[in-house]
Design a protein that fits this description.
alpha/beta, Rossmann fold, 2 domains, 7-stranded mixed beta sheet, 13 helices, 14 strands
Length: 419
């Protein structure tokens, strides 16, 4: 054996030994034994590391802040109760500012040492990461609800998807806001998976209801909706569906009011933030703007919501209490329950965590969510939507208009997973 061959062989053996000591495979998805407990990346003898890829500086900064703080609250409470399998939960947070390249870089940094991702904000971010998430077998919960994210065992889209909410929204407009067959309705949507998913539902609902859909698409950087309002007004729309960012929605409604476009709005859950109520457009939003969502408002008469509201306001004094808080807390709990079940199964490897999650339906946290089914990943977890409206006097900034309902219109619709 030549010196070069001996050095190469020694290096290979050293690398193999290093990988074995680290308890990981080339993809960092394997597991090692800790007594009779199987563990994987992100799990040590005293800690379980989770990662959140959020938006704290981009168009969904308000959402990201609320979600992240609520998730920290949940894991703090879980740690105070003893953690999972005698291990404390650590949530590592990275801000991608709704920039795909920043998100990819952040994932490369934190994913190898994480057991799961309880937060990834943004449909385009989730799409960009999906292949790597599947290769790494990493349970991932996006704060995004495009139906095109369905179809992966490792990606759990919670609640309803954007297309279902738009269909339930059209059903609300036709049953309770005077929109009728033969009318035109507008749809303002963001380019990308969010807007395209909402559009799929809007087109389906419009066709089934005998409506003409007037479509307008904007980019994430667009701030002034004057041109879009002009197009809707010229077309004579009787209502508008909204699938953009909160600031863009505020521009839409504000410009509409200023130009005499007084129609009802049915918005995706991502198209409202409580902070808008303190702006000049706040009074206009409270008139005829409705949000279609899988989550009950904090103002609903539910003990679990009141308890969470008190705990959050104690932990984060003066911070807005809105749907982002409920979404963050509940999705943190999805991962928390998966970890607990994986612990009971004595398998905290990544695959063990995913298997534990996929073997059960949603837990009842008393927070008003419609029942969810996590055993399938090719269909939405839920199909019933609440209708809520902005209300500055209501806890959380919204009040209940209609209980969670799976409309007759939505019952005949089937989303195409992954497409």
């Amino acid at each position: 054996m030549t010196p070069m061959i001996r050095r190469t062989a020694a290096a290979t053996l050293a690398l193999a030994a290093g990988l074995a000591a680290a308890g990981c495979s080339g993809k960092a998805t394997g597991g090692t034994a800790d007594g009779d407990l199987k563990i994987g990346p992100g799990v040590t003898k005293d800690k379980i590391t989770l990662a959140a890829l959020t938006d704290l500086t981009g168009p969904y900064a308000a959402l990201g802040k609320g979600v992240t703080q609520a998730q920290k609250l949940y894991y703090d409470q879980l740690n105070a109760a003893g953690g999972v399998c005698g291990r404390k939960i650590e949530l590592v947070v990275r801000d991608h500012g709704y920039d795909v390249q920043k998100a990819l870089a952040a994932y490369s940094e934190v994913a190898p040492r994480s057991a799961a991702l309880p937060q990834v904000i943004g449909s385009p971010i989730t799409v960009a990461l999906r292949g790597r998430v599947e290769s790494d077998r990493l349970l991932t919960i996006p704060q995004a609800w495009a139906h095109t994210l369905l179809g992966s065992k490792y990606v759990q889209v919670t609640g309803t998807t954007y297309d279902l909410d738009m269909i339930n929204g059209v059903a609300f407009l036709t049953s309770e806001k005077g929109v009728k067959s033969g009318d035109k309705i507008g749809h303002l949507r963001l380019e990308g998976d969010y807007g395209q998913s909402a559009l799929a539902g809007a087109r389906y609902a419009a066709e089934k209801s005998g409506l003409t859909l007037v479509e307008q698409q904007v980019k994430p950087t667009d701030a002034d909706m004057t041109a879009q309002v002009g197009a809707f007004k010229k077309a004579g729309v009787k209502a508008i569906l909204v699938s953009v960012s909160p600031k863009q929605a505020a521009s839409l409604v504000g410009v509409g009011a200023a130009t005499g476009l007084n129609v009802p709005y049915a918005a995706s859950n991502s198209a409202f933030a409580q902070q808008l109520l303190a702006t000049p457009v706040g009074p206009v939003l409270q008139k005829d703007y409705y949000v279609v969502t899988a989550a009950a408002p904090f103002s609903a008469d539910l003990p679990g919501l009141k308890k969470l509201a008190g705990e959050y306001q104690t932990a984060y004094k003066g911070q807005p209490l809105d749907s982002s808080v409920l979404s963050g807390y509940s999705t943190a709990a999805v991962v928390g329950e998966a970890l607990k079940k994986a612990c009971a199964n004595k398998d905290l490897s990544r695959e063990g965590i995913v298997t534990a999650h996929r073997s059960s339906k949603s837990q009842d946290l008393g927070l008003g969510y419609a029942p969810e089914d996590f055993t399938r990943w090719d269909v939405p977890a839920a199909r019933a939507s609440y209708i809520v409206r902005p209300d500055k006097n209501a806890l959380g900034g919204t009040s209940l208009v209609k209980q969670a309902t799976e409309s007759e219109l939505v019952k005949g619709y089937r989303a195409s997973a992954g497409g």
